Amino acid sequence: MSGTWVGLLSSLGRHVLTWSPSRNTILENFKIISNKLNFQTQSLNKIRPSSPPWLWSPKINTQLTEFCKHNTDNRIIRNLFAEIISQEYPDYAQVYTDASKNKNGVGFSVITDQNNHLFKLPPSSSIFTAETHAIYQALLIITSSNSTNSHIIISDSLSALNAISNPYPKNELIQHIQKLIYEIYTPTCFMWVPSHIGISGNEKADTSAYEATLSPLSIQINTSSSFETFSIIHQKIIDEWQHFWENLPLSNKLRNVKLFVKKLTYPPGTKRREEVTITRAKIGHSRLTHVYLIKKEPAPICDTCNEALTIEHIVIICPKFTEARKILQNPVSLHQAFKDENTAAISIFFNSIKSNHPL
Q: What gap in Å lies between CA 80 and CA 145, rounded to an integer?
């Protein structure tokens, strides 16, 4: 099994789940974890290129990228599209694909002359995966139809078409698409069109893709690339971790400051010393408040209030720093004081109070 999966399983073990350290194989442990996370997606197998990379050159028409739909009259683009089709692909059967990701889920459609094909993907799938799946299914439909006609697959996903043109794809779904293109026995090419400009086939595909997220008749697909699989599981780990974090008592210092498990970030250009100050303030442990543990001295006391000197006391309570708190917008809680919008101000605040000991 690849290093990706080893790292993935290791991440799962560290952050969310534990499993018996018995003689289970990595695959068996992965299945156990997948069941616990209610994870249904399966990864496609990697395959070797069907042709040498230097000979890979699929026929993809991107002429319409020269016209920005926001600056060009849509009628002009529609007329150009009709002209390209009539002059370059007059005898090609047109197949339209599109995808949709919304609150109802993720779906895509494949529109041919005879049928409207609807498909659904797991709700965690990306729109790129849905668009590439749509092209993949279009190729499968063309292959299974036993038609002798030439076909042009028309998509509004430039990223998917660019991925197909890449001779060195790492995405397994793109690899499978390239294999079908190479093996298909009838001339098949591709064309990009901008979305929502009134091209009838694209508009129908767009509407059908949305319907696919709602229709019980949509065909469910649970295969994806390893990268997508990793991303889905990573998000599930983050969701589990967030749920665990939210159930911690607010007496936990960091929980009281940090509501979400996302990584701490710093404004561009922040110096190392400032990063240290910001981090120590947020976790509530600093030289100013905790160096006594190392020196084996009594805990520090505020010389104004005669109370224990803590980050919360300095930032929220002590009247000595009332004026300086304006830098932090006069917070009433540590979470309010250390919110993301105040990150740059934290270091400025502690510099302004001119403490005898650096944070």
A: 30
Rounded distance between C-alpha atoms, residue 103 and residue 84, angstroms = 36
Please write the tens of the pLDDT for every residue from 297-348. Answer: 999 999 899 999 999 999 999 999 999 999 999 999 888 898 888 888 998 9
Nearest 5°: the CA angle 65, 159, 200 is 60
Angle between helices 158-165 and 127-144 (to 10 degrees): 70
* Encoded amino acid at 218, one letter: S
Residues whose CB falls within 8 Å of the CB of residue 75, separated by 6 or more in sequence, listed in order: 198
**DSSP 8-state secondary structure symbol assigned to residue 49:** -
Residue 155 to residue 190: CA distance in whole angstroms = 8
Nearest-angstrom CA–CA distance, 310 and 217? 61
Which of 48-52, 72-76, 351-355 is least confident?
A: 351-355
- Calculate the CA 99 to chain-centre distance: 17
Query: What does DSSP assign to residue 324?
Result: G
Binned at pLDDT 50, 70 and 90, residue 21 comes out as low
Centre a 10 Å sphere on the Cβ of residue 164 and count the other Cβ atoms it contains.
22
The count of C-alpha atoms lying within 13 angstroms of the C-alpha of 48, restricted to the half-sphere facing its C-beta, is 3
Tens-digit pLDDT profile for residues 268-300: 889 999 999 999 998 888 888 998 999 999 999
Terminal alpha carbon distance of the chain: 47
As a whole number of angstroms, the distance between CA 131 and CA 93 comes to 20
pTM value > 0.90:
no
Backbone angles phi, psi at 13, to 5 degrees: -65, -40
How far apart are the C-alpha atoms of 25 and 278, rounded to whole Å? 44
User: Which residues pair with residue 223 across a beta bridge?
Assistant: 42
Asked if pLDDT for residue 151 goes beyond 60, the answer is: yes
Query: 257 to each of 248, 254, 281, 283, 308, how far by Cα in Å?
Result: 12, 5, 10, 8, 19
Q: Residue 138: what are its φ and ψ, rounded to 5°?
A: -60, -40
